[in-house]
H+/gluconate symporter-like permease
Amino acid sequence: MDDNDKEVRLSDVLILLHTAIALTATVLLILVARIEPLIALLTGSIYLGLATGLGFQGTVEAITNGFGDIMSSIGLLITFGVLLGSLLSATGALRKLTESLLRVFGAERAPYVFSTSMSSVFPAIYTDVLLVLTAPLGRSIAPRIRRDGTAAMGAALILGSELGLVLVIPGAGALAVAGLLNVPLGSMLLFGLVVTVPTALITTFLYKQLLERGLWNRNSDELSPQDAPADEPVEAGAESAKLPSLGVSLLPLLVAIALIAAGGIAKVAGVSSGPLAFFGDPLVALFLGVVGAYFLAWRSLSRQQAGNTLSRGLRECGSILVITGVGGSLGAVISKTGLEDILAGYFSSNALSPLILAWIIAAVLHVCIGSTSVAAITAAGILAPVLGSIDISPLLVALAAGSGALFAVHVNSNFFWMFQRLLNLSTRGTLKTCTVVTMLASVVSLGMVLALSVVL
């Protein structure tokens, strides 16, 4: 090894070391020193940028661009989703839907229903949008569950949002990985469901066992009642008003979901323009849902109450958007360090079983860079060139990469912070739900993929 190679290797090691220090310090500042997440995340971002040689200007640009990129991609989606949830609560839709679900399935089965149905039926809906739409319903069901309902429902929402993203067509990650590895979309859909549904059920069961053994501490893992989202009091106060039926009150939500799903199917079919692509865009679909829910609330309640509900929803959006954007800033700084390329260079296609290797690559990438889709896509891209020389199905490699990409959603993910605010949890509580349940799901789904490899 010449001097240049040694310098490159030392530089790579230092980047890995500084990334580990930044992530560990951010977690410790929040959990031990009890520093506000906003301050801790920015501190970690600044340290990492300066320590890895981005410089003062480069660090500031990475932080601001990361914040801006997140806001431009999902800022309005989060806003419209929160507003739609607030309006549905005001018209009694969430309460009625909750009561209907509880009558059919019972409170204790609700986490199983949510985790399986969200991941298998709604993968076309963007992860963040799906979480925003379902969080108010999860919060309303949680108190009816016998023990640790907030944790159980939170885990179900995470599973429902993340599993479909990388394992089920038309999830964005699943589509990208299938394309990279030339996996037929029909096969990816079928066997993605074969892996996803049992994984959702088994992981939900295992997580509930952890709750039974004292994982959750309501006093430290949930925020105080006065910090709860503002939509629930509106619903309670509206009970005496002439509210629409469940079907009518849910219509704005159902229309938005149907449009988003149609748009996802159109995208798979290669339709990128025209009315279907336009109205199927999540931004347009959610906006139409908000408009419909607003006029429904105006007609059922009053113009003033509908306006007050929107105002409360907008206030709730503020903290969600800021902390989500700052989480995106940390991810952007990590990306600028070149960590993704460094990690890719350390893996050899001959080191392990291709399935285990795909899982490890995706898991390590996700822990370090915080993006589920990017982790799955990168792992698939690393192994794609050697698939022709190994005797294993590209479908299994695609599923293994998606499985590994689920591993440990934590503080460098904007999804982590959005989930925290929507479920009204402390950072400790979010680690116990978001991080723990994705670790479990990743390992369980790997087991399912390895079991499939026996017969495929």
